[in-house]
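Sequence in, structure out. Go.
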Amino acid sequence: MSRLLIPKLDELVEIPTFLKKVYIQSQNNEFIDPLWKGVAVMLNNGADTLINNSSDSIWYGNNAHSLFEKKLGYNGRIGIVTQYEDRQSVDFMNKLYRMKQVPWVRISCFVESIDNKICGISSISIDARFCTSLPFDFFDIARKKAQPL
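Output:
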C-alpha cells in the first residue's frame, strides 16, 4: 500500500480564491486555533523554518521528512490532526520531567492510495501555533487530490 501526499491549500482550484486568501491571510503563529483530534488544518507559513531548524519537531514514519522536502515544503500543506497535547497535558509533563514543551499537534498529510484513509504512520509533531484550523470540506477536497510521492 502506498501513500499519497495531500496538496497545499493554494493548489486546490475547487476552493474559491477569496476563501483561500481568508485562511492564508488569517494565519497567526502567536496563538493556538481551536484544535482537537480529527480537525483539518493547514501548516502555517513558518512551518518550513521551524521544522528544518528545530529539534522539537519529530517525524514519525519512514522517510516522511525527505518525502515532504521533495514535494516543496510544509507551508500551506493541508493535513489532519491525529493527536493534540493541550496546555494542561503539556504543563503536567513539563512539571513531571522538568521539560519546557509547548502545546503540540501530530499531523498527517498523507492518505493511503487504496482507500484514501488517513495514513497515521507518516506524520509530524509540531508546535500547535503553526497550524490554522480549516473546514473539513477543504480536507475532503484535498484528500481526493492527493498525489503519489
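Check: The radius of gyration is 15 Å. The chain has a mean pLDDT of 86.
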